[in-house]
Amino acid sequence: MNTISFTQLPGRPSCKVYHKPGQEKLTLKNVFDEAQNILIVGHQNPDGDAVGSTQALYRYLKISGKNASVIYPNGCARNLLWMDTDHKVRNFANHPEEVKRMVEECDLLCVLDFNRLGRTEALAPVLRSKQVRRIMIDHHLEPAWDDFDLGFSDTTVSSTCELLYHVFQAELDPARIDVHTAECLYAGISTDTGSFSYSCAHKELFSAIADLISKGLDTVKVHQRIFDNFSESRTRLLGCCLGERLMVKPEFHTAYMYLSDAELRKYNYQSGDTEGIVNYGLSIAGIRFAAFFTQREGRVRMSFRSQGGIDVNIFAKEYFNGGGHKNAAGGMSTEPLEAVLAKFEAVLPQFYKEHIEPHLLPEDFE
Ligand code: 5GP
Ligand code: MN
Q1: In terms of Cα–Cα distance, which of 272, 222, 296 is closest to 77?
Q2: Residue 78 pLDDT > 60
Q3: Which band of pLDDT confidence, cut at 50, 70 and 90, is reported for residue 271?
Q4: Architecture in CATH for domain 6-226
Q5: Which ranges constitute the DSSP H helices of the chain?
Q6: Which atom of ligand 1 is found nearest the CA of 332?
């Protein structure tokens, strides 16, 4: 078996830099210099970090005089659209032929905020079939290195946007970060940290934000655009979750919520509306593991969140065909919602014994 060797991003030992064997001389700067038509790709259900990082890189490349475009497998939430100032983003679900053509015409693929092509779901075969250099910049666990020619992976950062900031500093020209690029980077950082409530207790993050503020970033403006920009129906959907669909299992220090297809229709669900709802489970004293299930188009999407040493990446991988990070992961099932919830309840006692109980603190029992 070949062992994979890595270098480090200058000044950041926690960021692994991967080169495909035989391509050790590639640098990000050279790859961008050589490319004429760069396609930037976000993951399925692009969240604030996916949109923020792809739009920040797009802006940087545009300022650098490059021809670049952004594509997503499907649509993003309404409160993230402001980042696409050029209105050029295309999603595969709505514009399959146009996106196929964009992939066909590109000479470089940059994937951000995910680390295996499979995370683009229906778009993955289209990306795989194009023989072209692929770059990955991401903060999730366990990258599929083989999918890429050059990869930057740091699982200690809050977000891909934080990592991209460091990549700009170490590999590119940080003087080209303008106000909009700074806003997009901040958008990804603030969403992936739940407005600075997790994955953010390191001073490098705040130094980076201080630097972005010096470039003109207005953090209050970005916060309002993202977090004070929901539809009335989304706020009522949250009310339904908290009032009628919250299940608390104190004996397992676990809480979960669920929404059926019918409920999503009742509240006029728009993509992105359920983002962040899972975190309310963790806001209950003593709850250290939270899950959220939504049934849509014949599938159940799951979000898992935990605190401290409890590893929900393991849970998502072992039971629900998913993955992510230690404290934030997701999964998917094609079974009916009732069956998925029954399975969750059935596997919870064992997960509690092996992965929750050993990490509980005295205050969790008060
Ligand atoms: P969310 O619950 O916000 O959808 O996802 C939480 C985290 O887990 C995100 O970082 C997301 O990229 C990751 N994630 C969500 N679903 C999946 C999945 O099905 N597979 C993997 N590998 N990661 C996922
Ligand atoms: Mn992210």
Answers
A1: 272
A2: yes
A3: confident
A4: Alpha-Beta Complex (3.90)
A5: 28-34, 48-63, 96-105, 124-129, 160-171, 179-192, 203-214, 219-227, 232-244, 261-266, 279-282, 312-320, 337-351
A6: 19
Domain ranges of the chain: 6-226, 232-365
- Residues in contact with ligand 1 by the CB-under-6-Å rule are 47, 140, 303, 322-325, 328-332
Mean pLDDT of 76-104: 97
The label of the residue with tokens 């995910």 reads: 114
Q: Two tokens at 152? A: 């930057």
CA–centroid distance, residue 302 to ligand 1 (Å): 9
How many Å lie between the centroid of ligand 2 and the Cα of residue 328?
Answer: 10
Which tokens sit at 326? 């230690």
Which of the four CATH numbers 3.30.70.1350, 3.40.50.720, 3.10.310.30, 3.40.250.10 does domain 232-365 have? Answer: 3.10.310.30
Which protein residue has the closest C-alpha to ligand 1 atom 21? 323
| Tokens 């990549």 found at | 167
pLDDT in tens, 276-318: 999 999 999 999 999 999 999 899 999 999 999 999 999 999 9
What pLDDT is recorded for position 4? 87
**What is the Å distance from ligand 1's center to 83 Cα?**
22
